[in-house]
Amino acid sequence: MVAKLSHSSRRKSRKAHFSAPSSVRRVIMSAPLSKELREQHNVRSIPIRKDDEVTVVRGSFKGREGKVVSVYRLKYVIHIERVTRDKANGQSVQVGIHPSKVVINKLKIDKDREAILEKIRRGRETRVKDDE
């Protein structure tokens, strides 16, 4: 994981956030896992990815469920199927939602994602042992 850069200066914090490279934006765009997934994987949150199934928990689209259609790192938003708005000309457009405002219900798991989950799980387990 990349070392987090934090500044007490509002100006520097905002500059770091909005000029962050894609690799750092991926980590910033993490979403919490549902209670069931959290118990199953012993991981609290993970960077969101296309084809994850999520539930919106904040905002006017609260309660909507769907699959992540795209992850728009440049704007720090994700697009979810069935979370749309109709334009004045009748065209339907996706509404961007920040990943922190959703909960992941189902992960799209492949070998790379499994390795990430295992890495986080091991880190959490060693942290718990150190505290004892």
N/C terminus separation: 24 Å
The H-and-E topology, N to C, reads as: HHEHEEEEEEH
Here the CATH topology equals SH3 type barrels
Tell me the number of helical segments per DSSP (H or I, 4 or more residues long): 4
Q: Poorly predicted ranges (pLDDT <50, ≥5 residues)?
A: none
CATH architecture field: Roll
Strand coverage percent = 25-35%
Helix content: 25-40%
Major sheet: size, sense and barrel closure?
5 strands, antiparallel
Radius of gyration, in angstroms, nearest whole number: 17 Å
Summarize the structure in words.
With 132 residues, the protein is α+β, with helices and mostly antiparallel strands. The protein has a single domain, classed as SH3 type barrels (Roll). Helices cover 33% and strands 30% of the residues. The protein has 4 helices and 7 strands; from the N terminus they run H-H-E-H-E-E-E-E-E-E-H. The strands form 2 sheets. Strands 6-5-4-3-7 form a 5-stranded antiparallel β-sheet, with no helix packed on it. A two-stranded antiparallel sheet has the order 1-2. The chain is globular, with a radius of gyration of 17 Å. It starts with 9 loop residues before the first helix and ends with a helix. The model has no long low-confidence stretch (mean pLDDT 93).
